[in-house]
């Protein structure tokens, strides 16, 4: 009965995805923190007109209201979390995406917001600290990355032994350069390349096989340490670069799928042409499908005032602005069904290309502070999310039938992919 219930939930999720397109946007308001009231006169704390006044309000599960001095502005998303909502609540919405991942879709989950808005808290939670002890897992405060990883391994355990294997890579995109945080030489240059099968990858980046959540999180923490140590110039380096954890799932295709594929006249050619999301290859005569889960803690989205910023800081600021506006441009192009989607304008969007476009499923978690002092940044962030929500694409069909649901491969229809894929 439990399985039936779960299947129904998954079906509902898929239907919602089809109705709303593959991009979902959630908003999370963090609680008022001590640093929000810094340098504030004690007599005016939280009072109307003060910088610590709470102006970003949770209205209901789908609406956020921002009180500006002129009017109230309401933003609607698929889901809104109030400041007391637990990490667990966010994960509830992520869970069905992992089932999709094993069904052959690429998935990405990214946290967007200004520095201090709760992105790292949302993505990593308790695992952000160097001294975090994994023996306390699962920690109630752990974020999306450990939770998603744990659930992924749980789902894989339900599958026949040996059909799924996982690899992890941890990179940062800093000043439009990709840095391999699992390498001894994190400053070496890397580039995104398109393989013969049309799938994007960074072949020079370290990718480690993993078989449990602890080994993934140990690698993520190693990456965070490398990131901290390799940061030369800048204080608060973490908010100046994008962190991307990529879990690649290799699935040995079910035999019926393999048979139908072998019957294809073109054989083992471009996946995107066929509309199959995963990366289908043959190793030792057995076809495998590769799908990716990309978990992203984006750089701070504060509109950096260019005046007074010089040298390295200016270079960083303009690179962050460029990559985040490249992301906005990609989402905009998808929303308008433009034939050219400008993925190549930044390494960030280039690397994320096949987990943003086409059939991939993207969840954007907007993180905002409730305080008046950040209202400009919060409005920018909520506006970005609102525009991203307009991304609507045609209905999608599953490409790799789940074991619970053996759809004959010839019944699945392909949908045209965006021209650049
Ligand atoms: P960012 O990564 O966006 O710069 P952080 O995740 O570091 O922001 O959050 C800033 C501070 O606020 C941290 O101390 C974090 O623990 C705290 N914080 C953020 N969101 C929440 C939340 N939902 N509940 C409790 N504390 C939070
Ligand atoms: Mg952070």
UniProtKB/TrEMBL annotation:
- According to the record, the residues making up region (Disordered) are 390-421
Q: A GO term (biological process) for this protein?
A: microtubule-based movement
Q: Where does the record place Polar residues bias?
A: 410-421
What domain of life is recorded for the organism? Eukaryota
Sorted keywords for this record are: ATP-binding, Coiled coil, Cytoplasm, Cytoskeleton, Motor protein, Nucleotide-binding
Molecular-function annotations in GO: ATP binding; microtubule binding; microtubule motor activity
In this chain, ATP is annotated as bound at 113-120
Q: Residue ranges of the Kinesin motor domain?
A: 22-391
Subcellular localization(s) per the UniProt record: Cytoplasm, Cytoskeleton
Main localization is cytoplasm
The entry's cellular-component GO terms read: microtubule cytoskeleton
Q: Return the similarity comment.
A: Belongs to the TRAFAC class myosin-kinesin ATPase superfamily. Kinesin family.
Give the protein name, as stated in the record.
Answer: Kinesin-like protein KIF25 isoform X1
Stretch of the intact protein here? 151 to 571 of 571
